[in-house]
Amino acid sequence: MRKQKGFTLIELLVVIAIIALLRSILVPALSRVKLQAKAAVCRSNLHQWGIIWHMYLDDTEGRTPKTLSWWPHMWDYFRDVKLLVCPNATKPVGALIQGQSERGDKFHAAVEWRNADDFDGPQFDLQLQNMVKPNGRHFLTSYGNNFWFTQDEGNVRGVDLPDGTPKLWGKAPGSILGAKYANRVPMVLDSISGGNCPLPSDKPPTYDGEPYPGSTNKNEIRNFCINRHDGYVNVVFLDFSVRRVSLKGLWYIWWHRGWPIPYELSEPLDWNDPQHWMHDMPLEY
User: Tens of pLDDT along 11-41?
Assistant: First the structure.
């Protein structure tokens, strides 16, 4: 009778070791592919926001919204709240409290409470009424507006340039659609809140994922300086193009009408320290 041969212990251990080795190689690669796919979806969302902003500015003859509340003014142009969320940050930090808004973070969406009267446009339709009535509702968002795109002088950090002209894009003479350096003027970006007003002197976060309280009126660029896409954030610009910008590159784009182009102020020296978490990051914009 023929004796059936089985695997030896050594052979089994070799097979297990090979499987473990393949897993250690493939899992990080698959994780990178997944993150790259999410970044591509994020850029696709912002491409849609570029189209939305283009239509809005065409219809308003190049005038920006009058308040910091940007996307509710554009409800007629999009209607799909999924465009408000980066796939890398789709859930809030914690449980939602009725009527309360909360900032997000690196991988969490911000929470905005909206009432019916926050929305503009003639198409205040049944869908929207059902979404916000009777007492309002929460919306999740992972994108923020450059708050220098407003006409509201009461909510920005220093309104005028030394010559008395406004920094605000919304106060610019004529239409902003013909603005110089339009391909370097950020409108909507990855963010942890609805937006903010960066200044050239703002400092970067002291560590990766540092929460920003939003009540100090300084270093507001930290709302956008978030390591959500492996050292980059996605940005839609005033020429309605979309591209990724490195975290250091956020200091080299044209946030308001007085921002130095090229960026000539002494850069945030924090990242010159080899121990700083941004030290080895690229400079791309």
Answer: 777 788 888 877 777 666 556 667 678 889 9
Cβ atoms within 10 A of the Cβ of 57, count?
A: 19
d(CA 238, CA 186): 6
- Is 0.70 surpassed by the pTM of this model? yes
Two structure tokens written together for 76: 């007629």
| DSSP code per residue over 164-207 | S-B--GGGSSS-GGG-TTGGG-EEEEE-SSSEE---TTPPPPSS
What is the arithmetic mean of pLDDT over 248-258? 94
- CA separation (Å) from 147 to 67, 128, 238? 9, 25, 13
Q: Residue 214: pLDDT above 90?
A: no
Tally DSSP H helices, then E strands, for the chain: 3, 7
